[in-house]
Design goal:
The complex is a heterodimer of chains A (about 575) and B (about 210). Chain A is mostly helical. In chain A, about 65% of the residues lie in helices and about 0% in strands. Chain B has a single domain, classed as Four Helix Bundle (Hemerythrin (Met), subunit A). Chain B has six helices and no strands. Chain B has helices at about 5-40, 50-55, 65-90, 95-125, 140-170, 180-205. Chains A and B meet through helix 1, helix 7, helix 8 and helix 9 of A and helix 1 and helix 5 of B. The complex binds protoporphyrin IX containing FE and copper (II) ion.
Chain lengths: ~575, ~210
């Protein structure tokens, strides 16, 4: 054993238990840190959404809870209109960046990459730790914006100028927006460090026998996610730097002849559309950064719980690659009504519709995997089925939105809200839940409670459809997104009761997440002990000892002899055949 | 043990990480360059011409178009060569030679930053700055100019600091085991130079 391995195995600088947890460089502990931070942020995001749903359902009624939490922004319990925008902005930012980007790929890349490729740790455990610390720092910075006098940023998660570029535009454009930009810069650095590490680990540290075409799909998905992040976040960085210059240094990259409160501002020659191009060059790959890990997780869980080889393993990889590649060429479908050249609109319509093809192939493969499988309805399996259901429903509306002609009417309405909440929000969150339930035994050596898991699934699944499905109809009827009070418009009166209904369901589904939280924490201490390979799975992470050790495997690293989906092969006695067992034995 | 070669892998890891970082950084610069072209092609007022803006040559005179920046480009490329020489000598275990070349690289880097500061000061005296430009011209010209050259300048500064760090490291070390570190620092330095060539072409020349 050489020095390096020695170091990893006996990295006992911080022997005290707490310190060991906090300053750990062990990828399994960093995975837990990512997960817990993301869950914390997720609950805040969820809570915010329930609050602004309250406002939408009962616009003219004061609520004590507003006063309790945001005293200065809720006079006598009436929510401040510009603060409503802040809530929407922070909700979106937290959910998309902190839960579904940092949390989802951060947790599962850290947990699964070394364990499934048979490595002792990440390529650079130190950078890995740094990546988590920066992530935590940026999360806290983002939350700090609630304590700023003028309130958090309020230009939406897309921070379009001029609202984000003129510090005096509205309350949230001031310090809150600055804090947002600082937090996001830290986040970008954290994700850059993380992604570099993930890619390097996958490329260089696979164990003997583990070729690229023997990798579990989830590793492919995490690899492509990391590549997408590596190439798209820097462009947001450039956009953010220029935005900071616009805000503080009098430049006018995104601004031209503009009046603020009757006063003429001396900006000249810039264009807000420029920002939109830069932003969506990140923004569209970003939605795939969010969904690819979830799709990867579901591939694993489907195959394991159907006790069948994954259908179309290679096609699955190629369609992942195609999605990742194409996602760089569709960004302007978010900008059909921004005043871009209609010709560009048509080009992007075509590329957008093309990207639906590999997505459809994946769905087809999922269904073919389920087809005539010996399905085990475990909690992770249920969440995976839910994911597929959402991916289909939301993907279909994506094709509507991809057509410039339809999108001109639907853009910025609740139709878009429904589309992306179903296809991105819910599908990816379900992927995350599935992953947590499935790999909980690996994380905490205990099993989660199945019964509570089922209850959690059914309430969440049904309420998501009840919440977001009606929104399609609201959108088709022209209801715009990010509005504070719909009762002010006579034409939307027909939706008053619908809005109340949605709010009530969202409160119920919010409470259902407490079941999950309870299950999560309770099982950590009192859950049933897990066996070494509780799901009878083939991948390498289930060959490590139950108790975590530094370096993952006690003696030699495992050697891989086969692909990861050898289920129900009549050649073998068991209905599964782990990757590290050779035929000769 | 079948993971005996971990140490070798470790070197490859750092090299790959460096490359990945550089690829990512290319995208940041591409973002800026794209903004440059978008602003320039959509300009409704006069977009100043490089020949007219950059005529200043310190010590000599005032009206040789692009002479100063050509000199700057030239010395930066020279520093790439000296960086290469330093790595080359180090590989052949000639520590002193390697240190001398590295010293030149650092010196040239500092010179470049010095020249750039001179140019910035001069331009700001002529009325170019963030949000400022001589009347009648498109203000985004100076905006994007300072943004891109400033961002590049920060990269050069970081490069100089890395080089100084590694200089000290090599100077103090007893066994020569910094080759990979030096090599990665070299990669970064060549990258910064290469980016400058593009900036020179896009912003000054055309
Ligand atoms: C079949 C594939 C898909 C197509 C054709 C499609 C198309 C579109 C289009 C055209 C828009 C712009 C609508 C508008 O603003 O007017 C949009 C918005 C959006 N899509 Fe998709 N989409 C697809 C899949 C996805 C996936 C897989 C995700 C995420 C995992 C996603 C997440 C989003 C988000 C977050 C937005 C809203 C962005 C915003 O304005 O805030 N979409 N989609
Ligand atoms: Cu998109």
């Amino acid at each position: 054993m050489d020095r390096q391995t020695d170091n990893i195995l006996s990295n006992n600088k911080f022997n005290m238990k707490i310190l060991k947890y906090i300053f750990s460089r062990d990828h399994k502990i960093i995975a837990k840190q990512f997960l817990i931070t993301a869950m914390f942020m997720g609950f805040i995001g969820l809570f915010i959404s329930v609050l602004f749903r309250l406002q939408l359902a009962y616009p003219n009624r004061p609520f004590y809870i507003f006063k309790l939490f945001f005293n200065k922004f809720a006079n006598d319990g009436y929510l401040d209109p510009s603060f409503y925008l802040s809530l929407v902005t922070i909700h979106g930012t937290i959910m998309i960046f902190f839960v579904l980007t940092g949390g989802l790929s951060g947790t599962f890349s850290n947990l699964l990459i070394p364990l499934q490729i048979g490595a002792r740790d990440m390529a650079s455990p130190f950078l890995n730790m740094l990546s988590y610390w920066l992530f935590l720092l940026s999360s806290l910075t983002m939350l700090y914006s609630f304590f700023v006098i003028t309130g958090p940023a309020s230009a939406g998660w897309t921070i379009y100028p001029p609202l984000s570029a003129l510090p005096k535009a509205i309350n949230g454009s001031g310090t809150g927006q600055t804090v947002w930009l600082i937090s996001m810069s830290i986040f970008i650095i954290s994700s850059l460090i993380g992604n570099i590490n993930y890619i390097t680990t996958i490329m260089n540290m696979r164990t003997q026998g583990l070729t690229m075409y023997r990798l579990p799909i989830i590793i492919w998905a995490l690899l492509l996610t990391a590549i997408l992040g590596l190439l798209s976040f820097p462009v947001l960085m450039a956009a953010v730097i220029l935005l900071i210059l616009d805000r503080g240094f009098g430049t006018s990259f995104y601004l031209s002849d503009i009046f603020l409160a009757g006063e003429y501002l001396h900006y000249d020659g810039g264009s807000p559309i420029l920002f939109q191009h830069l932003f969506w060059f990140l923004g569209h790959p970003e939605v795939y950064i969010v969904i690819l890990p979830a799709l990867g997780i579901s591939s694993e869980i489907l195959s394991i719980n159907c006790r069948k080889p994954l259908f179309g393993y290679h096609t699955m990889i190629y369609s992942l690659i195609a999605i990742a590649g194409l996602s760089f060429f569709v960004w302007a479908h978010h900008m059909f009504i921004s005043g871009i050249n209609p010709l560009i609109g048509s080009v992007f319509t075509i590329t957008t519709l093309i990207i639906a093809v590999p997505s459809a192939i994946k769905v087809f493969n999922y269904i073919a995997t389920i087809w005539r499988g010996n399905i085990k309805f475990t909690t992770p399996m249920l969440f995976t089925i839910g994911l597929i259901s959402f991916f289909i429903t939301g993907g279909l509306t994506g094709i509507y939105l991809g057509n410039a002609i339809l999108d001109i009417n639907l853009n910025d309405t609740y139709f878009v809200v429904a589309h992306f909440h179903i296809v991105m929000g819910s599908a990816a969150i379900f992927g995350m839940f599935a992953g947590i339930y499935h790999w909980y035994p690996k994380l905490f050596q205990k099993m989660m409670n199945e019964k509570l898991g089922h209850i959690h699934f059914w309430i969440t699944y049904i309420s998501i459809y009840l919440i977001f499905f009606p929104m399609h109809f609201m959108g088709i009827n022209g209801m715009p997104r990010r509005y504070y009070d719909f009762n002010a418009f006579g034409m939307f009166n027909i939706f008053i009761n619908m809005n109340k209904f949605i709010t009530i369901i969202s409160i119920i589904s919010g409470f259902a997440q407490l079941i999950f939280l309870y299950n999560f924490t309770y099982s950590m201490f009192k859950g049933k002990d897990s066996s070494k390979n509780p799901w009878k799975a083939n991948t390498l992470e289930w060959t490590t000892p139950i108790e975590h050790i530094h370096g993952n495997w006690e003696n030699d690293l495992p050697v891989v002899y086969r692909w990861p989906y050898e289920y129900s092969n009549p050649k073998y006695q068991d209905d599964y055949m782990p990757q590290n067992i050779s035929d000769k034995h | 043990m079948n993971d005996i070669h971990l140490n070798k892998i470790n070197h490859q890891n750092w090299k790959l990480m460096m490359w990945l970082f550089l690829i990512s950084d290319i995208f940041t610069f591409c973002g800026f360059i794209n903004v440059f072209f978008a602003l320039r092609l959509n300009s409704k007022t006069i977009w100043p011409n490089g020949d007219i803006v950059f005529t200043y040559v310190p010590l000599i005179g005032y009206n040789i178009p692009l002479a100063f920046v050509t000199i700057m480009t030239f010395i930066l490329i020279m520093s790439s060569i000296s960086m290469y020489a330093s790595t080359y000598e180090y590989k052949k275990s000639k520590k002193i030679n390697s240190l001398i070349w590295l010293f030149f690289t650092i010196l040239i880097g500092i010179m470049f930053i010095f020249c750039q500061s001179l140019e910035w000061i001069h331009l700001s005296n002529k009325g170019y700055w963030f949000g400022k430009i001589p009347i009648g011209h498109n203000v985004n010209y100076s905006n994007i100019f300072f943004a891109i050259t400033g961002f590049h300048g920060i990269h050069v500064l970081i490069g100089i600091m890395i080089n100084i760090f590694i200089f000290i490291k090599i100077y103090l070390e007893k066994r020569m085991h910094s080759y990979n570190f030096l090599n990665n620092a070299g990669l970064y330095w060549h990258f910064v130079d290469l980016i400058w060539v593009f900036i020179f072409t896009f912003i000054y020349l055309i």
